Structures are given as C-alpha cells and as structure tokens.
Amino acid sequence: MGSNSSTAASTEVSTIVKHWREHPPSSYSLKIHNLSELEKSTALSDNKYQSRLFTYGGYNWRLIIYPKGNGEDNVRGFISMYVEIDSESLMLFTPPTEIFAELRFFVYNKKENKYFTIQDVGVKPFSELKTRWGLQQVLPRVTFNNPDNGYIFEGGQCEFGVDVIVAPSLTNWEVLSFTKKYFDPKFSWTIKDFSELKEDVQKSNSFPRGGKEWVLALYPKGALGADGKWLSIFLCLADSDKPEADEKIFVQARFRVLNPLGSYHFEYPLETWYTEQTPAWGWAQFLPLAELPKVYLDKEDALKVEIEFKVVSATKYSFTEADPPEKDWVQLTPEN
C-alpha cells in the first residue's frame, strides 16, 4: 500500500515596497550638483554624507546617504539611505521615550520625471538604543550611475529625499476598572415619622462609595406612575458627581427595606449603567405602601432602608488632540 505525503513550503514575505511617484518628498530633499565630488568627499567621513538637521513631526532628523553603500553593514554595490533622529529630540521627554515613524526614501529620475520610491512598510521605533533606521540596498550602483537610466543628469546632478511620517503619541485612552471590595459596602438610612411625612420626596445625606458621591431618594407616597400605592426608591448620583458627557458608571447593588424584627427583609437587585442622561436609577413600584405598617415600620413609625454595593466601575481617560505634524520642506544643495 502506498502513501502520499506533502510538505508545506513557506516563503518569506518581503516588506519592501517600490513604486514611482510624481510629487517630491514632503519631509526633506537633498540635491547634489556633482556626485563624483560628493563620493570623493565622503571618503573622509566613513563614505557617508549627513544632511543638515531638519524638523518634521515635531522632531529633528538627518538624512544620511552612502553613495557607495554602507560599509559598516558590509554593503557594496548599492546606494544606502538612512534617517537618524537627533538625540536631543529624544531628551524632550523624561524618561526618554520611543518615537515611531514610517520612512519613505526617494531618488529622482530625470528621464521619467518621477521619483523612484522605496520603503520598508514597517513602522520603526527610534530610541536611545536605536537612533537610525534605513535601507541598505536602495538602488544598485550600476543602475544609478548609468546616465542612460536617468538618475544622474546634467553633468552629475542627482536628488535624494525622504518622507518621515511620525506616528503621533497616544493621547486618547481609557482605563475601565471595577471596585468590588469596600471597607463598608452598606449604607443605611432611617426615615422617622414615616406616616406623617408631607413632602413628596425624601433625600438622604450624600455618601461615598466606589469613588463617587451618592444620594438615596425615597417617595413615601409613590413617584409619578406609582398611583399612590407604591413606595418608590432610587439611587442617585450626587449633584457634585453627575456623569460627564459620554461617561458611564456601572453599579451592581442590592436595595433593602428592613424588617424591624431582623429577618424577612424586602430586597431587590440593581444592575445598571449610570450616564449623563440617567444619573438616577431605581423603582417607581418598589414595595406596596399597604405592606409598610404591617411589616416594615417599627413601633416609632420609622422606616429603615439599606443599600449594599457589590460593584462600582470607574473610568480614567484622556482625550486630547495631538498637534498636527509640521510640513517643512527643506532643500540642501552642496557647493561644487
């Protein structure tokens, strides 16, 4: 009996993207009037040319060109291009942080009247440990140096450039937490002379739980919709802690009307989100009023209610618009 076996071949996906573009680089352009002289001069500076500092996205950068390839990385036969962040830009933060940027490198082609564009699509983290990122093999030198190909023109002129697309710092964030343990999860409130109350609503003193101030509101003759037959009760956020626009606070708790005999309390669970539109929550028909004198009022005509908190959510957040990236365009033309 024979058997067939198959092997899965894996191929590495390149992250290098090349294309042509008509409009020039938006971050920095370096135009050279005599490439051969530049190549001679760079022999005195590790075969590289470093541009002046330019500002883009709020940070200072340099464009670095290796016209004969980056010998530090054992690259020969290619144009190598890099971007380096100025170390002082990193020291604007305490402690220094990472700055993320996407890099696009350009080489102008006079014949096509377009820019050859090459980039590694990954976003690069610039930090104290890694201040320079780039591409070792932008163009083969034999391709670049042949005037028929259009990269060198008018007696040795050429142009390089870069787009530095700085990822803005994270300014919009939200952290949601849930408080589940309390030193004292219960709040008790005694309403005296309940049967003699004239006001439509009774409110407790404010009390803190879960980082917020709360108030109990009780309607001894029923709230709207209770038909005067029900005890109405609500848990309300205090005026000083009303939810802000788009804020949400989750509450899990239990309401109780206590039996003065110490057992058979009437209780009901509350689970809801408090918002700007709903800063109070409860029941218009919590307990029939007819039941109160039978079971829940004590000998002194007092009614005792209680709420026990299980969970209260809290949100820390920051919604700050980041500064728009700067749009500098700088040209550097070395002297012949």
Automatic annotation (TrEMBL):
MATH domain mapped to chain residues = 25-164, 184-309
The major lineage groups are: Eukaryota, Viridiplantae, Streptophyta, Embryophyta, Tracheophyta
Which named protein is this?
A: MATH domain-containing protein
What is the protein's species of origin? Brassica carinata (Ethiopian mustard)
Q: Which PROSITE patterns match?
A: MATH
Coiled-coil spans in chain: none
The record's annotation in CDD domains points to: MATH
